[in-house]
Predict the 3D structure of the following.
Amino acid sequence: MSIYSFSQIWVYQQCPKKYQFQYIDKLEKEFKSSPDLILGTSVHSCLEWLYQQVNVFRIPTKEEVLNKFHEIWEKEIKEVWTDLLYKWEQTAEDYIRRGEHYINDYYEKYSPFNQSKVIGTEMMLTFDLNTDGDEKNKKSFRGIIDRLDKQDDETFVINDYKTNKQLPTADDTEYREQLTLYGLWIRQKYGKYLKTIKAKLHFLHFDEFDEREITDEVLNPIVEKYTKLIEEIEKAKVQYAESFNNDKNAFPTKANNFCKFCEYQNLCPLFLHMNYWDETVSWWELWESSVKKLVDRYAEVSKQATELDKEKSAIKEVLVEYAKEKHVEQLFGNTSDLGISSGMNYSAKDKEKFIQYLKNHGLYDKAADIPFHKINSLIKSWDLPEESINEYLEWKKSRKLTPKKKKDAI
Ligand code: SF4
């Protein structure tokens, strides 16, 4: 039984190949600290210290809390071995100022910190997504809660501090899903003390928070989603481990906006060819060309083919209309002739109803023409049960070439 963290699942959703490099092949990636990371740690540790004081009935002054922040920042900076990279002409002072602002605004908003009782800070948790399965089929999760509070009305609140400068949009669900899952742990652990669980995200840069109740309606679909994702990862792991020379497709590549920051880009099949010297290959009987030239030629030919297709349809439309008007069935050019025949074709008024009609009359198999990409999306969305995948489908390699314009920077 493996225990998953939210960041592991997040990497898998971002790109299964990256997940393979990082968590299955366990390829070393150089850990680099950054000013953002140090700021996040310093603010989190400072607020942890503050609530530890509150929890023993002492309210530190704002100056004390700010001093604590400076003390932690200095300690964290001393522990960094390499030079820190400050982007966009920022300096250490800019980061310190940000931290001071976060602490100051937070203190002003919540002092004297009597809104709730603190149950714990920086709580490490491990919990099962499913409690009914046997030990082998258990799906377990681990995580850290920044702070867990209990309010007077038997409400437990999971607090999470964010120090980044991007405010998530309303449909950005990543953080919310994480805290919702932690709600399951609270229910398993503290169920008898509570009536309500809430998740509260503190966006310190904006002096804003997002608070939501974790009801069964919110929790159940998320548990289901993560259970399925874990099952998918476990299946891919078996496929990867059992196949000869490790199945390269068990964890496929998935191009995304973070590829340019990916530590494994020089190993990734999507980008590997960038590091190759140009090679010569034979094609079309005795012709030879460099691979790079062939790639460019393929893109050029594809573009021309698309333009020719468009031109063909436009010409067809004009000539068909012309022949109809003149009541002729053949058109003559200087070097070619065109026969024009007409016929009748049926199309379904209501596709669903028509398919059902064909099925009822045992004709569906004769008429069905299911595109391959549709079958794959059915499998991905879990609409086809495993038995039917094995019985009706075979796993075949497919290749698709998609030309695109070269970008200057990747
Ligand atoms: S470069 Fe992109 S596609 Fe390749 S492993 Fe990294 S995230 Fe995945």
Observations:
- The pocket of iron/sulfur cluster is lined by residues 15, 17-18, 253-256, 258-259, 262, 264-265, 268, 270-271 (CB under 6 Å).
- Strands lie at 3-5, 117-128, 140-151, 155-162, 196-203, 208-213, 280-283, 287-290, 330-332, 337-339.
- The mean pLDDT is 84.
